[in-house]
Amino acid sequence: MNPWILYTEFTFIKTFSISIAESRKNKKPGRLRNPPGLVDSKKI
Q1: CB 31 within 8 A of CB 39
Q2: pLDDT of 2-39, one tens digit each?
Q3: Is the CB of residue 2 less than 8 Å from the CB of residue 10?
Q4: Which residues contact 41 (CB under 8 A, 6 or more apart)?
Q5: Distance CA 32, CA 28 (A)
């Protein structure tokens, strides 16, 4: 494997996950600690 391919894949996944986390924070500032699964299980 080419080390540059591994490096670019790692940085892409890292930035992609960070962008998803940031978008979730901006959408729901009040529900940062509760994923949708936990909220649904508490209602039941």
Answers
A1: yes
A2: 888 888 999 998 998 888 888 877 766 555 555 555 55
A3: no
A4: none
A5: 7
Please give the C-alpha separations between residue 22 and each of 5, 27, 41, 43, in angstroms, as whole numbers.
26, 9, 25, 26
Amino acid at 10: F
Residue count of the chain: 44
Which amino acid type is present at position 2?
Answer: N
Hey, what amino acid is at 8?
T
Kindly report the pTM of this predicted structure: 0.41
Q: Which residue has the tokens 């391919």?
A: 5
* DSSP-derived 3-state class of residue 44: coil
